[in-house]
Amino acid sequence: MEAMMTGMINNIFFIIFPIILYQMFATAGQRNFFVSHRITMTILFSISIILCMLFPYQFLTEDYIFDLRQVPMIVGALYGGPIVSAVLFIVSAVGRIAIGGDGMYIAILNQFLLAAGVPFLAPLYRKVNRWWKAGLVFIISIVSLLFNLFAGYFFFGDPVHDLIGIWLMLMLNQGGIIILTALLIEHLQKQEYLYTSLMRHEKMETVSHFAAAVSHELRNPLQSIKGFVQLMQEYEYPRSKQLEFQQTILNEINAAENLIDDYLVYAKPAYDELKPIEVEPELLHVIKIMSPYAKARDVEFFVRTDHLPSKILGDSQKLHQALVNIIRNGIEAMPTGGKLDIELENSSQSVCVLITDEGTGMTKEEVKRLGEPYFSNKSKGTGLGLMVTYSIIHQMGGDISVDSEVGMGTKFTLEFPKLPE
């Protein structure tokens, strides 16, 4: 009994392991077994058939050995179709010929009938729900074993009534395992379908947000431009007034261009060639630029650096843009003034920029949504600044994390891989 259970467990492992192995290593969103990776799954199921045949097990009596090769054959034929079924038949037939022994021709004939007949049931199999699928594979398995039972009676004179108990147990054994296999595949297929649907939904939602944000933000400058053009068409203004209107129109066009540039940077960041840059001088340059803006809002900078080499691979212009966005957000988060800490830390593996404000802070949910399009804590914000910032940091191989508490302020940590000296 112990040897039988060990052999049965081995056969079950040979059947299930290729399915799990494929699920683990196949690319998410493309795990559709015999549809997306027909050759891979055919090879895995062929290996499963061979291993089942090489490691059979005795069943209830020492005179009868059994294996579960029919399980991957039936499942492969239903999911893979005629070509896969033909390949699996050839593999099993060659293996059975190599093993030899009594019943070889009956086994090969049985495998041929499975390979030829089961693919015709595949269209029906795909249409029914998973419980009907479980019932269908069970019936196919029972019919296959009944063929072996009666073929043994006709060709070898095996007494059916003496073996009916053994064959009944075999039917239940193989039938139960093939049901579990089919249900496992259906479960994995359902999970993959849900994952693909979710990814598709998220992409459509992102496109929808982008369209809404672009439409909303471009409408303001376009309406201004339209209004000034209509005024110039309807009235005769002095030359100086016309020039003033034209300058306003140009300013609105520039604002629209900047908005579009921000979206393009997020969607497909355009960099000059990434090259080694020192973070400390770039950071100090940005602080110098932002100092007048901070002073006008009663915000004081406290800067700490260790003056150690801080070389990373990046784009200085885009790094400036990212740092300006974060520092500006920190300043604007303190409407009554305050202190903004900016610290540069070096380690053997990374360069970190820490920017901490004393502002209003954010909830955990708001922190999670930072960097999303169409999300901002500002009454007139679009979320584009941090969206672009996140994109820049990630495209330079860095990471950005945020710690915040309502009423206590916010800390941004930018971490970049450090280049070796």
UniProtKB/TrEMBL annotation:
| Histidine kinase domain residues | 213-420
Q: Give the principal location in a single coarse category.
A: membrane
Q: Which SUPFAM superfamilies match?
A: ATPase domain of HSP90 chaperone/DNA topoisomerase II/histidine kinase, Homodimeric domain of signal transducing histidine kinase
Which keywords does the record carry? ATP-binding, Cell membrane, Kinase, Membrane, Nucleotide-binding, Phosphoprotein, Transferase, Transmembrane, Transmembrane helix, Two-component regulatory system
Give the enzyme's EC designation: 2.7.13.3
Which positions, given as ranges, span the membrane? Answer: 12-33, 39-59, 71-99, 105-124, 136-157, 163-185
The answer to whether UniProt assigns keyword Nucleus to this entry is no
The question of whether Plastid is a record keyword is answered with no
What is its membrane topology? Multi-pass membrane protein
One GO MF annotation is: ATP binding
In terms of domain of life, where is this protein from? Bacteria
What reactions does this protein catalyze? ATP + protein L-histidine = ADP + protein N-phospho-L-histidine
Location relative to the cell: Cell membrane
Family annotation (CDD domains)? HisKA
Q: InterPro entries annotated for this entry?
A: HATPase_C_sf, HATPase_dom, His_kinase_dom, HisK_dim/P_dom, HisK_dim/P_sf, Sensor_HK_Regulatory, Sig_transdc_His_kin-like_C, Sig_transdc_His_kinase_LytS_TM
Protein name per the record: histidine kinase
The opening ranks of the lineage are: Bacteria, Bacillati, Bacillota, Bacilli, Bacillales
